Structures are given as structure tokens and as C-alpha cells.
Amino acid sequence: MQTKKQKFFLYTSSVLIMIIALFPFYWAVVSSLKSGSDLFKTDLLPPAYAWHNYVEIFKEQPFGHNILNSVVVAFGTVTICLILAVSASYALGRVKFKGRSALLLTILSVSMFPQVAVLSGMFELIRTLNLYNNLCGLIFSYLVFTLPFTVWILTTFMKQLPREIEEAAILDGASTWTICFRIFLTTGLLAFIAAWNEFLFALTFTVESQSRTVPVAIALMTGASEYELPWGKIMAASVVVTLPLILLVMIFQRRIVSGLTAGAVKG
């Protein structure tokens, strides 16, 4: 039984964690509704709601097209990544063969390299394949850091997943592939977020505004002069880009949990 002091500490800690986690996004929303000198004030609510920031980010640059580029690249990366990673992780997690540990260690070591370490080699490869300034080039390059991580995480989950859950789901009529995709949808979401937020490869492998993804488009926003940054518009663009991720997490979390426990609670 929890004492009153323990409950108070638990609830207080939870509230503090929520405030710390949500306040940056709240401040981004507030800043996106400010303009002029109001941006440098610390008001918790904007004095006047500058909705024109959200309108101007779509008028002054092809921001809608940049969002579409990010959607295509993120979904393309997740699709290819899941097809390859789910197949590999199921074999690595369920099938015992010689050299499996060494193979897993190699996969993990590949994911340890920072992006900048492979940037020059990836640039030459992308240029040789004639994929420079092309969304297919971004999808191909994103697999470098999403695929090893996804394979490693899915293999770990597959090893720890009790076979009873898989067997119960099969008895309920679900195929092995259905089980894998339902259980590991969270990892696909993580890969989607990584591809959606990626900046270095997108900045290096694209040069035209029509081919840029949203992180690069936001970073290259300029104001009336070369040294002036439109912070209100930048915050508005950041809010527009962050909202889809929040919605995806809220929607798919419920489906993932229900899919994972659907066959495990039935006798």
C-alpha cells in the first residue's frame, strides 16, 4: 500500500515531468502567435494573436511542397526499413545459426557511427547513382541510420517476446506476418520520426527549394534582410511540422497496445 507521502511525491513528480516535457512546445505555440517586439517579451500568452505567421510560411516559400517531400521520404523510408528489418529480426531472434551474435554485433557497430562520419562517402555514392537532389536519394541515405537501429531493436524484442503470445495470436487467426507488423509498429514509428526530423543528409543532398524537406526549409528561412530571422514564422513552421508527429503517436499507441495484448489475455 502506498502512503500519502508516496502518492503525493508520485503525483508531484508526474506533474513536474509533464510541465518540463510540454512547456517547450507550449512556448513554441505562443511564440508562433507573436510578431515584432512581442517576440522578445516573456508573456505566457501573446498580447495579440499573429495568425498571419501561419499564412505567410505557405505564401513566401513552397512550404506545403516541403511537407509533402517529408511525408514521401518518411513513409518510403519506413516501408523499406520495416520490410527488411522485420524479416531480418524474425530470423535473428527466432532462428539459431552460427555467427548470429557476431552479425548482431556488426549491425550494432554500424549504428554507432555518426552521420558526419559517412557523409562524404554517401555524397559520392548518391552522386554516382545520379540521386542527388532527389527524394529517392534521401530515402536511400536514411536507411543507413534507420535500418541498423530498427533491426537491433526488433531482434531484441523478438528474443524477449514470449512464444505464448505469438501462439495465442496464431490461434486467433493472425498470421505470423500480421503479428510481426502489429507488435513492431512502434519501431516503424520511431523510424518515421527519425526520417521526418533528419537534417544533415537532407541539407547535403538537396539544393533546390522544391526538393527540400521541412527541417531544411525551416533552417533556411530568412527575413527582410540577410541578418534578420523571422522567429514568429520559424516557430509557426515548427508547430505545423510537430503536430503530425504528436497525432501519429497518439493514434498508433492505442492500436499497438491493443494489437500486442489481443491474443495474450484469452484462455
Q: At the third CATH level, what is the topology name of one domain?
A: MetI-like fold
Based on secondary structure, the structural category is mainly alpha
**How is the main sheet built?**
none
* Strand percent estimate: under 5%
Number of E-state strands? 0
Number of helices: 12
Q: Please give the radius of gyration in angstroms.
A: 23 Å
The CATH architecture assignment of one domain turns out to be Orthogonal Bundle
Percent helix range: over 70%
**Which stretches are low in confidence, meaning pLDDT under 50 for 5 or more residues running?**
258-267
Arithmetic mean pLDDT: 80
Name of the CATH superfamily of one domain? MetI-like
CATH class of one domain: Mainly Alpha
What does this structure look like?
With 267 residues, the chain is mostly helical. It has a domain at 62-220: MetI-like fold (Orthogonal Bundle). It has 12 helices and no strands. The model is unreliable at 258-267 (pLDDT under 50).
Structural key phrases:
single chain, 267 residues, MetI-like fold, flat, disordered C terminus
What is this structure's SSE topology?
Blueprint (H helix, E strand, L loop, with lengths): L3 H29 L19 H8 L3 H32 L5 H13 L6 H10 L6 H26 L2 H9 L4 H8 L1 H13 L2 H6 L8 H6 L11 H31 L6
Helix pairs in contact: 1-12, 2-12, 3-6, 3-9, 4-6, 6-9, 9-12
